[in-house]
Amino acid sequence: MEPFFVRYRNLLVLLALLVAQVVGLAMQVHRTRLGPAGVDSTDGRSVLLLRYWANSLVTPPERAIHSSKLGVSSVWQNYFDLRHVREQNENLQKTVDRLRLEQAALLEDARQGHRLQALLNFQQKYIFKTVVAQAIGSSGTDQSRVFYLDKGKDAGLDRDMAVITADGIVGKVRDVFPHSAQVLMISDQTSGAGVILESTRIRGILRGNVSGQPQMVDVLADQRIQPGEKILTAGGDEIFPRGLPVGTVEKVMRDPDRDSFIQILVKPSAHLDQLDEVLVITSMQPRFPPEQQQDMATSVQLKGAEAEAEAQQKKTSEGMAEKLPGLIDPNVAPDQQLLHDTSNPNPVAHPPQSLHPDRFTPGAAGTPSAHQSSEDVQSKPPPVRQKAPVDGIDHSGKLITSGKTSGSGKPSGSGATNKKTPGDTPARRNP
Amino acid sequence: MPVLTADSRRDYEIRHYPVLVYALVPLCALVLQAWLPRVLGRFAWFDLPMVIAVYFGLGRRNPIQGSLIGGALGLFEDALTHHAIGINGIAKTIAGYLAASVGIRVDVENFTVRVLVTFLLSLLGSGVYAFIYRFLLGMGAETNWLTELYKAIGNAAIAMVLFPMLDVTMIRD
Questions:
Q1: ipTM over the 0.90 cut-off
Q2: A49 with A173: CB under 8 angstroms?
Q3: Best of A8, A11, A12, A17 to mutate (most B CBs within 10 Å, chain B)
């Protein structure tokens, strides 16, 4: 009887291979908190190494095929053309062959020249820093819509850089190798980009569907959304700059999973099936043309002169403020402040001193009552004063208020106003 | 009179190829698989590594070798995608194993059998891929089965042309 391991050797090897690969898969997939769709797409170091090896093996032949321009379609066409010509004239065949090949090469060169010219024009007008790269290969399966660029880390490319054409966005850089890079297209089911409808300003997320067509999801049903409306990048995903063309609305349909939501099929602006040259946005810092930079420099200079004038004005006003007296000087003692200065230009008004004080003089002993004083004033002439205050300025030259008398004929000095009438006190004591 | 047992029959019918064929043919398949979709766009309905895995599985008639060749091709193909490495590997390991197992039991010289086996194993490979991707890994992506059917037909069509060409490289006693 054959031993167990010999009898089932094939099956055991198959199981071992499958188990090893399943364990490898489990080690690669890191789930995040976002649920089924939330899978961390970042590769581990060893996985990245495997991808690098595979890429290093495949990229050189692809590059060689691309550089030699031996496209399958052109070879196919030329083959049939040559067969047809050979039947007509064997001698002419070689000439026609050569001419046709040259023509095809020139035509291809001319087409490429046109494409590059258009791309260069776009790049010159575009304000962000970009690198032109050539699409050289793909993943080979429509379940992974990625393609490879002929430039990598050596050209300044990095992960999560936006890849665009003059027509619209294409995708983002997913992995970077020394001389090549992998780009995840917007038509892949795992891609995602923040987009906005141009006229209705409704936002959503762009990702590919099962057929490889981009669609806008997470959009609430809205009747204003009509086919033909333009879709732009929203700029919130920190990958694509705001306002880049994405495509147009092709069809609006209900989301089968959520009632109040719709899905918008998008016709991409960029020709995702026929990509040749693309631009990779390597820096999101604006890059302005020389004329615009000059204008900005002039503007900064003008703004500097204005700021300088403002500073000068401020300095002058501060100097003037220092020269003018203030109510409180921090360098002077509190009792010597201007607030306590006796030379205040607005002193409390006092009646002038009489030259010959008598019993009617305010403050003198035996001042008569109001009715007595009024009789005496009428019988006697008013006392002559040495100098009457003129225009509110006394003889010492200080500004004073004029000494007005009350309606009872008494001067409005402090002595007169403080005097109480006899009847006041009892009335207050016995209400 | 020597008795032709299953093992001796298998050994007798095992095909041998130059080492260069083992190295270059899979590499060419991988390079073309990566490059042709750029030219043909969405009409690239074929899977050359699968065709090669089936061819060597049928020719070598050794399930272990079929599994290893299929697994290696699948892993390489996975490395060119952005998915986890191993999805295609498992699918093509199973396909290679089954191709070799079928090769022991049926007459693989029959042209129709080879094309039919290629078609069926391509469909099986797509099914295994979808199963791993959706259920084993729990990804939300869907599969367009019409495209997978076209791909299986494309693989069978390529097998019709490619298998006789590769048979030429076989070492004959």
A1: no
A2: no
A3: A17
B169 touches chain A (CB under 8 A): no
- Rounded to whole angstroms, the Cα distance separating B41 from A140 reads 10
In angstroms, the CA A153 to CA A141 distance is: 25
**B19-44 pLDDT per residue, tens:** 888 889 999 999 889 888 887 877 88
B77 touches chain A (CB under 8 A): yes
pLDDT at site A373: 45
For chain B, what is the domain count? 1
Q: To which H or E segment does residue A135 belong?
A: strand A128-138
DSSP annotation of A159: T
Q: What range defines the domain where residue B67 resides?
A: 6-164
Which is nearest to A324 in space by CA: A306, A338, A313, A310?
A338
The answer to whether residues A135 and A163 touch, using CB atoms and an 8 Å cutoff, is no
Output the CA torsion sign for A319, A320, A326, A332. positive
- Tell me if B34 is assigned to some domain: yes
Q: Is B52 inside any structural domain?
A: yes
B50 touches chain A (CB under 8 A): no
Nearest Cβ partner for A62 among B35, B41, B144 = B35
- Annotated domain spans of chain A: 128-286, 290-317
The CATH superfamily holding the domain A128-286 is: Rod shape-determining protein MreC, domain 1 (2.40.10.340)
